[in-house]
Amino acid sequence: MPVRLDRAVALVTGASSGIGAAVTRRFAAAGAQVLATGRDETRLAKLAADTGALPLVADLARPGAGQELAERALAETGRIDVVVNNAGLGWAGDFAQMPPADIDELLALNLRAPIELTRAVLPGLRRHGGHLVYVGSIAGRLGVAGEAVYAAGKAGLDIFAASLRAELAGQDIGVSVVVPGVVDTPFFARRGRPYHRARPRPVPADRVAAALTAAVVQGRCDVYVPGWLRLPVAVRGALPGIYRSMDGRFGGRS
Ligand SMILES: NC(=O)c1ccc[n+]([C@@H]2O[C@H](COP(=O)([O-])OP(=O)(O)OC[C@H]3O[C@@H](n4cnc5c(N)ncnc54)[C@H](OP(=O)(O)O)[C@@H]3O)[C@@H](O)[C@H]2O)c1
User: Fold this and answer.
1) What is the per-residue pLDDT for 199?
2) Strand, coil or helix: what is 184?
3) Is the pLDDT of residue 71 over 90?
4) What is the DSSP letter of 109?
5) 181 CA distance to ligand 1 middle (Å)
6) Which atom, in ligand 1's list, is nearest to the CA of 90?
7) Number of domains in the chain
């Protein structure tokens, strides 16, 4: 269902950087009351000063952190209408070299925390309606060499959202998945390997934020940024053999 942002309380995870910061700015400009969460207190405070958002510092990789964050947010505002599950972390390299602690952290942050947070906000959403957004990745729809665990976590998030959408059908709760390709944020530096390809060219974080905001306001299910990314996904689904022959182009290391 479409949501009126000027009447909404929105919880945005990963708001201290990149896509989440851009979403916070867009939501605040549209009149929403935004609860902006992340780990970096200084960046959150600056965002809060710029936008009027309420900063909530939280490490979402810890078990139970999603539930705790929802409780803290509800204690502040009494209700949450929109949740943007955006906080995420990458890891690049050969899967066999990936330390077990990094596997745990990636799956905890990228998959378990959104599931926990969703479970904690659902009773309220069932009462008054609202919207759940999941920031996935093209890696989770296509699979990418050198990012197997990241892609698996994002694919899990994707299918969690699709299942939830089916389960909540007929209730006043929208579910959107935003599927970015390459976005110009600190994500690549943080994952340990800068983005080195010439194409596809990174898009600005605000382009993703604009598409995400439109998805909430218009009640859209699936949003690719840029839009042409739906083509390789469609080819992989309909013509898997042909897709595999082009795999280096779309699923190669980035
Ligand atoms: N950039 C891309 O090309 C791209 C492409 C597809 C999908 N995505 C997805 O888009 C989302 C946003 O990424 P971005 O590109 O904006 O990257 P980013 O600039 O690195 O932002 C990541 C955000 O996640 C937060 N975060 C990281 N670890 C956390 C933890 N343990 N607990 C709580 N928050 C944590 C960070 O908070 P602190 O800075 O405060 O630690 C930051 O706000 C991610 O889910 C990512 O997978 C990105």
Assistant:
1) 83
2) strand
3) yes
4) I
5) 14
6) 47
7) 1
**139-152 per-position pLDDT tens digit:** 999 999 999 999 99
Cα separation, 142 vs 182, whole angstroms = 13
**What percentage of the chain has pLDDT greater than the value 90?**
89
3-state SS, residue 174: strand
Determine the structural domain holding residue 177 and report its residue range. 5-251
Alpha carbon separation from 57 to 19, 73, 121, 132 (Å, rounded): 17, 11, 18, 21
What DSSP designation does 111 have?
I
For the chain, how long is the longest CA-to-CA vector?
A: 53
Q: Ligand 1: residues within 6 Å at CB?
A: 14, 16-20, 38-40, 58-61, 86-89, 109, 135, 137, 180, 182-183, 185-187, 190, 205
Give the atom of ligand 1 at the shortest distance from the alpha carbon of 154: 47
Q: What is the CATH number of the domain that holds 29?
A: 3.40.50.720
SS3 content of the chain, % helix, strand, coil (to 5): 55, 15, 30
Structure tokens at 70: 């929802």
Closest CA to 140 of 177, 96, 188: 177
